[in-house]
């Protein structure tokens, strides 16, 4: 009988509280969806793996190390499910690490990141809207994505366009390391003089450093302080996307798709 596993691959976080509420919650959803598979965790961020090892004595393997471990345990059938938001650099890194193992397992499949198909964008939008209050003329919901120099960076603007197409023009999406950035967010808000309040949210699976510092921190250049300086009343909702049931279910659906449609 085949020995089966599911490998949940995340960028990672060193914040233990949000780790369990986000990555941990997604992993529990994956484990429930695949009761016939053992679940193993891997992080693509070497920096976070080192920090967890040196600070907490916690060993989290890289994807390559995890696959090597599964080989050693006699596993023959592996589904890899990333918890990445976009098909960006971290997903490329995962695929590069998985490539040498394609021929070492009898079956190996890799699920897609969160925002891949048009249907994914629609499902993500619905999962987010299920967590937001109804639309108010005086309030904008501002989401901070990570952003990237990778060519998939327009994923963020596509998601905002979809929200607007659904009638939710109160939702604005910017990024901390890409385009659009804070400057564009402020400009978009200024185009709507009736908006006097901004609710800030991370558009990231985990609410880690970027959410706590760049988005909601007390530093002068944080989005919170920049918006307050511009005259907006600001509230911060520091829940990572991984806390939302609809997002957890979407990742499990991607893993199921991968398991059912082998390369």
List key phrases describing it.
alpha/beta; Sirohydrochlorin cobaltochelatase; cobalt; 4-stranded parallel sheet; about 260 residues; 11 helices; Anaerobic_Co-chelatase
Along the chain, the helix and strand elements come as: EHHEHHEHEHEHEHEHHEH
Helix content: 40-55%
From the N-terminal CA to the C-terminal CA, the straight-line distance is 21 Å
Low-confidence stretches: none
Kindly state the number of beta strands. Answer: 8
Rg, nearest Å: 19 Å
- Average pLDDT value? 95
Shape: elongated
Which band does the percent of strand residues land in? 15-25%
Q: How is the largest sheet built, in terms of strand order?
A: 2-1-3-4
Structural class: alpha/beta
Please give the count of helices: 11
Outline the biggest β-sheet. 4 strands, parallel
GO molecular function, one term: sirohydrochlorin cobaltochelatase activity
Active site: 146 (proton acceptor)
InterPro entries: Anaerobic_Co-chelatase
Protein name: Sirohydrochlorin cobaltochelatase
Topology of this structure?
Elements: E1 4-10, H1 16-21, H2 23-33, E2 38-43, H3 46-56, H4 63-72, E3 77-82, H5 89-98, E4 107-110, H6 118-129, E5 139-145, H7 155-165, E6 171-175, H8 182-190, E7 197-202, H9 209-215, H10 223-229, E8 233-236, H11 245-260
Parallel strand pairs: 1-2, 1-3, 3-4, 5-6, 5-7, 7-8
């Amino acid at each position: 009988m085949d020995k089966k596993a599911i490998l949940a691959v995340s960028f990672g976080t060193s914040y233990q509280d949000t780790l369990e509420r986000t990555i941990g919650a997604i992993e529990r959803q994956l484990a429930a969806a695949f009761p016939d598979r053992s679940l193993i965790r891997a992080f693509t961020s070497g920096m976070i793996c080192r920090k967890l090892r040196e600070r907490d004595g916690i060993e989290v393997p890289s994807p390559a190390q995890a696959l090597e471990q599964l080989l050693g345990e006699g596993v023959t059938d592996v589904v890899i499910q990333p918890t990445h938001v976009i098909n960006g650099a971290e997903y490329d890194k995962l695929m590069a690490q998985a490539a040498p193992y394609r021929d070492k397992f009898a079956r190996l499949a890799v699920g897609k990141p969160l925002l891949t198909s048009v249907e994914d964008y629609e499902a993500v939008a619905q999962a987010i809207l299920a967590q937001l209050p109804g639309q108010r003329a005086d309030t904008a919901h501002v989401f901070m994505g990570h952003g990237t120099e990778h060519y998939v960076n327009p994923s963020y603007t596509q998601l905002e366009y979809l929200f607007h197409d659904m009638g939710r023009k109160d939702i604005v999406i910017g990024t901390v390391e890409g385009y659009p950035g804070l400057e564009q967010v402020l400009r978009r808000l200024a185009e709507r003089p009736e908006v006097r309040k901004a609710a800030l949210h991370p558009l990231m699976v985990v609410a880690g450093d970027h959410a706590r510092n760049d988005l909601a921190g007390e530093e002068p250049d944080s989005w919170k302080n920049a918006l307050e300086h511009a005259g907006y009343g600001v509230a911060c909702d520091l829940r990572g996307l991984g806390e939302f049931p609809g997002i957890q279910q979407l990742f499990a659906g991607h893993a199921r798709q991968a398991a059912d449609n082998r390369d």
